[in-house]
Amino acid sequence: MAVIKVGFLISYDYEFIKTSLPRVYNEVEEIYFAVDANGLTWSGEPIQIADGFWEWIEEFDTANKIRIYKDNFYVEGLTPIECDTRERNLLGKHMGEADWYVQIDSDEYFVDFPLFVKKLNTFKSAGPVTIGCRVVTLFKALSNGYLFIADSTERLDFATNNPVYEVSRNNISSNEQLSWDDLVLHQSWARKPEDIYFKLHNWGHRDDFNLDSFFNLWNAMDKHNHHVVKDFHPLGSGVWPRLKFVEGNVQQILNSDSVKTIAEPEVILVKRKPLLSRLWKEIKSK
Q1: Cα gap 189→8, rounded to integer Å
Q2: Number of Cβ atoms within 10 Å of the Cβ of 39
Q3: Per-residue confidence (pLDDT) for residue 136, from 0 to 100
Q4: Residue 202: is it exposed, middle or buried by C-beta count within 10 angstroms (0-12/13-18/19+)?
Q5: pLDDT at position 73 over 70
């Protein structure tokens, strides 16, 4: 059996880990939490992680799998995306020897992580490789469900046997890029307005687009007008074609066929290079 380790970044959206962690906990031997030692975001803003959260972690970790890794992940003079990338590299090194390093953000929920692990255990690679998975992004919470990104080409990198990251958790130039059909529900934007505003000003892509303009767009979306928005990903075209609605809460969506249904595109999509590959080229050219 392959040695598979999972790492999470614990920051302002730490509460989402209560949904993400249980979906992976039983499948791996070690889980690492990277936490800024000074309680700062990648933009240097202070955050407060409630004591009750750590009490929940202690109660949940019945098999003593979780390791807390504290370090200085905010560095003055670095951009948020540089701090993001730096933290993921430090976490990869701290996790020690492994066959596979899986990094999952707190708001990302594998639909079938046991199947993903089974595939990692049987996969043989001749060299450095990065494995990306399909992502369904929840864009906004409404009273009885969520607006989500429909017909999306979005994929994110999750696993690698060579944890040397270049942009966020992507090994774009050094690793072979593989795309698997494993599905991840991403609660990226389905948050309270004040949490979205804080996220926009403190995440890795803070400097990559007009934050206030995008926040105003997000804030205006509802069940009556969401159909008018097309191709609106803030970092590039062809990733977020349109919005649709799905009924239910997150657990109901994850535990039913809804998540598989909404993940299937209803239109023929033009194949494009992954968004982070394009962003990486733009960064390198500056």
Answers
A1: 18
A2: 15
A3: 93
A4: buried
A5: yes
Q: What is the mean pLDDT of residues 230-244?
A: 90
- One-letter amino acid at 73 equals F
The CA–CA distances, whole Å, from 184 to 117, 134, 197 equal 14, 6, 24
Q: Assign domain 4-285 one CATH number from 3.90.550, 3.30.460, 3.30.70, 1.10.1740.
A: 3.90.550
DSSP letter string over 103-132? EEETTEEES-HHHHHHHHHH---SS-EEEE
Nearest to 119 by CA among 169, 180, 61: 180
What token pair was written down for 2? Answer: 């392959």
pLDDT for residue 276 = 52
Q: What is the mean pLDDT of residues 45-66?
A: 97
pLDDT of residue 266: 64
Quick count: other Cβ atoms within 10 Å of Cβ 224? 7
Average pLDDT, the chain: 90
- Calculate the alpha carbon distances from 37 to 10, 12, 33, 70 in Å: 11, 13, 12, 5
- Do residues 22 and 28 touch, judged by C-beta distance below 8 A? no
Strand partners, 135: 184
Q: What are phi and psi of 244, to 5 degrees?
A: -140, 175
- 141: helix, strand or coil: strand
Domain boundaries, the chain: 4-285
Distance CA 183, CA 265 (A): 13
pLDDT at 39 over 90: yes
Q: What is the pLDDT of residues 93-108, one digit of tens each?
A: 999 999 999 999 999 9
